[in-house]
Amino acid sequence: MIKTVAIQGVKGSYHHIVSEQFFDNSVGLIECLTFDRVVEALITKECDAAIMALENSIAGSIIPNYALIDNHHLHIVGEHYLDIQHNLMALPGQCIEDIEEVYSHPMALLQCKEFFKGYPHIKLVEDKDTAEVADRINKKQLKNIGAIASVLAADIFELDILAHSIQTIKHNETRFAVVKRTNSEVPEDEINKVSMKFEADHKRGSLATILNVMSDCKLNLTKIQSLPIIETPWKYAFFVDVTFEDYNDFKKAKSLIEIMGEGFKVLGEYKNAKL
């Protein structure tokens, strides 16, 4: 039973919203300003699970988080997709023309950069977390300072929303992973998605051959992400997500890929949240 979950950010953050939607409000939160701290809380058993953003439909993959999950031998036991709606907020009684600086997470700033081209007087400053900035504005009563965060953050920290849904692309989804220390979470007959990692030989067609095995075994490739192997320059590991209808098809593919690919590793077996 999940009693506590570690999230990147504070209450009002998008990770907090995922926690509420995936679990429920009774789950205790451990607020962490970095993903390194999130992982530390999990591996030291301060919490039962962790939530980590993996990719965004606008900004792409959050590659360091793949490495954190892999390097610390953690396991993805679930996933959740959240429609990310960024809002510009500040202390009550101000308008956009009053705002001189906006602080937010680099990913949020990247996703909203087109909006701010219309307000060249506003300086954009990278910060650790969206909701933490909102909290700081409230606690210190910072005038002329704006935050980019969720509606929940505006409600919690009593800020006025000056502009709704300011991200460049209105349909803006982030995929989050629910991570635990062990991988025995979902019954085998309910598993229809797997995250795995492998390395391919430096030979022509090595990666293509492995991908063909997946296709022949009726696996649907939904994600492939390369990551440099630091100890071996110009060699890459591949992080791959596949979906399937029959777990036996995955087991067949797994037995072949274990032989063909170096360093094969299953990072998680879980339910496909897109179904």
Task: Give an overview in words.
- The structure is a single chain.
- It contains nine helices and 15 strands.
- The chain has 275 residues and is α/β, with parallel strands linked by helices.
- The chain folds into three domains: 89 residues, Periplasmic binding protein-like II (D-Maltodextrin-Binding Protein, domain 2), CATH 3.40.190.10; 77 residues, Periplasmic binding protein-like II (D-Maltodextrin-Binding Protein, domain 2, 3-Layer(aba) Sandwich); 83 residues, ACT domain (Alpha-Beta Plaits).
- It is elongated and about 65 Å long.
Defining traits:
6-stranded mixed beta sheet, D-Maltodextrin-Binding Protein, domain 2, Alpha-Beta Plaits, 5-stranded mixed beta sheet, 9 helices, alpha/beta, 15 strands, 275 residues
Give the number of helices. 9
Count of distinct structural domains = 3
On the 0 to 100 scale, the average pLDDT is: 93
Top-tier CATH class of the largest domain: Alpha Beta
Overall CATH architecture of the largest domain: 3-Layer(aba) Sandwich
CATH topology of the largest domain: D-Maltodextrin-Binding Protein, domain 2
CATH superfamily of the largest domain, called what?
Periplasmic binding protein-like II
- Spans of at least 5 consecutive residues whose pLDDT stays below 50 are none
Number of DSSP strands?
15
Intertermini distance = 25 Å
**Whole-number radius of gyration?**
21 Å
Tell me the overall shape. Answer: elongated
